[in-house]
C-alpha cells in the first residue's frame, strides 16, 4: 500500500511539472471564448490603428473602437503603453 501511495504521488508530481513546463492550460484555453484576442499596447498604438488591423469584416472602425472600449471598460479611447486589452474576434482572413 505504501508503494502504491508513493507511485501515485510521484505520478501527480510528474503531471503537475509537465503542466507547468509545457504550459498546457494556456494552450487549451485558446484566444478566447469567441475568438477574442488580447494584445499588449505598444508605444504609439491607438484604438483606430487596431481597428485597421483587427476589425472583423463588415465592422466599421468606429463600431470596432466602441466595442473595444465596452469590452475593456475604457472610459476614454486613450491607451497606455504596456496595457493589455481584449479585441473582438477578427475575421478568418486575419484582417
TrEMBL record:
Name the UniProt record assigns to this protein: Peptidoglycan-binding protein LysM
The keyword Cytoplasm appears for this protein: no
Keyword Cell wall biogenesis/degradation: no
Lineage: Bacteria, Bacillati, Actinomycetota, Actinomycetes, Micrococcales
Alphabetized UniProt keyword annotations: Signal
Signal peptide: 1-29
Record InterPro entries: LysM, LysM_dom_sf
Gene source species: Brachybacterium rhamnosum
Amino acid at each position: 500500500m505504501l508503494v502504491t501511495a508513493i507511485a501515485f504521488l510521484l505520478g501527480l508530481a510528474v503531471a503537475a511539472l509537465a503542466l507547468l513546463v509545457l504550459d498546457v492550460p494556456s494552450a487549451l484555453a485558446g484566444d478566447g471564448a469567441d475568438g477574442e484576442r488580447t494584445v499588449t499596447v505598444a508605444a504609439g498604438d491607438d484604438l483606430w490603428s487596431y481597428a485597421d488591423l483587427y476589425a472583423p469584416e463588415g465592422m466599421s472602425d468606429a463600431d470596432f473602437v466602441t466595442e473595444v472600449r465596452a469590452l475593456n471598460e475604457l472610459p476614454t479611447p486613450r491607451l497606455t503603453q504596456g496595457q493589455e486589452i481584449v479585441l473582438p474576434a477578427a475575421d478568418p482572413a486575419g484582417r
